DNA sequence: CAGTGGTCTAGACCACGAA
DNA sequence: TCGTGGTCTAGACCACTGT
């Protein structure tokens, strides 16, 4: 009943932790593993997908399945609130940003609670570590709220500049909500991430003190090479019924 | 280049959104879909996995692939800070809780920063909606910090009682860190969730004002039927470099 | 029992990367 | 060019569900 590919994944995981396979080196090819475990290649591939989703293996097309450390994943932290020891471990990434004006699609209109077609400033961030993409971030600010201008210089991985730009324009964020879900990558994401591993999808909205949504963001993180961290400080005084 | 299973997934998604397939009704069987799209069954299955991970389809062994609404997913909110409209939408779940004493394994010892073998009070929560499990939560409190006692009555889905018990014992949580990652389910989780969909894995630690870890938790949420939401309130005064 | 999805096989052919 | 992983086929057999 316990699928055989799980036994294989467990065995490979154990061998990786025993350093039988070296970090940043490829495992034996899928064909060889199939022979060793006396199963077909697709079965081996499913076992490797399990390890990939754990961040222990990175599949590189045409090269092999490389042993990785899950601790070296990139870290997304809410609204630039850098967090604890993990943040320090997150390796420095190369980030590129583009700014343009778009009009709200159905999805964006629901996220930002603006009418369909409303003008938005879009900030598109791509974070890269070495040759591997660690995150796609699209931030949106309704131009009704404020008309921000690019370009963004020296961008941070998750678009913290937008918050600074908002503050400079006199728009202050009071509260941010991050929704995190897991899904499989879209065609585009699969191409960019070069991976079919599950994606951490983050939907974020920031509101000002009047409750108006002043910023929204859609992030896609490759689940095998990134994670999300949130810090909540408990107030000393027990407080409010939220409303 | 764009895998054909993605086209099939896109087509099915569109038909679902056009209400060509009814919510809570099964799609045509995988065999029939394979004939309709002129592909083999495994290809159809991959397309359905995409929709499953989006929460649009629930696969039920021996019954069929049922159309679902992603909005009806259960919501995990950090440390019981119920959140916005989404929380209201999260349907009420049946929750069972067990309390026992365990000694720290390697993983728990790293999470809680206690020595291996240290005694811990474990709270195990299982949340169910109808017949579908929506979350597994294991909370740990080092007995060195305080020796809590069960049983827990009328448990909440994510173990908020533990926080209350801590407070009653004079232990106050100052800060909570949630790490969210995506992985494929373990053998056990696959059995409990009855699904091979990606799991949202949450590692949580709570510290008191002295920085000591007073509680830790490991949560597994079925990615196709649950999501995580975090709310961050921005302080009015721009503050500290965290360190 | 019949119909469904779950796992697995033993191939085929294509796309990618390095030499 | 050759070895790698990515996609897909056309089955087989098992497990689960409802009748």
TrEMBL record, chains A, B:
GO terms for molecular function: DNA binding; DNA-binding transcription factor activity. PROSITE patterns: HTH_GNTR (PS50949). Coiled coil: none annotated. It comes from the Bacteria. Keywords: DNA-binding, Transcription, Transcription regulation. GO terms for biological process: negative regulation of DNA-templated transcription. Residues 2-70 form the HTH gntR-type domain. Pfam families: GntR, UTRA. Signal peptide: none annotated. PANTHER family: GNTR-FAMILY TRANSCRIPTIONAL REGULATOR, MANNOSYL-D-GLYCERATE TRANSPORT/METABOLISM SYSTEM REPRESSOR MNGR-RELATED. This is HTH gntR-type domain-containing protein.
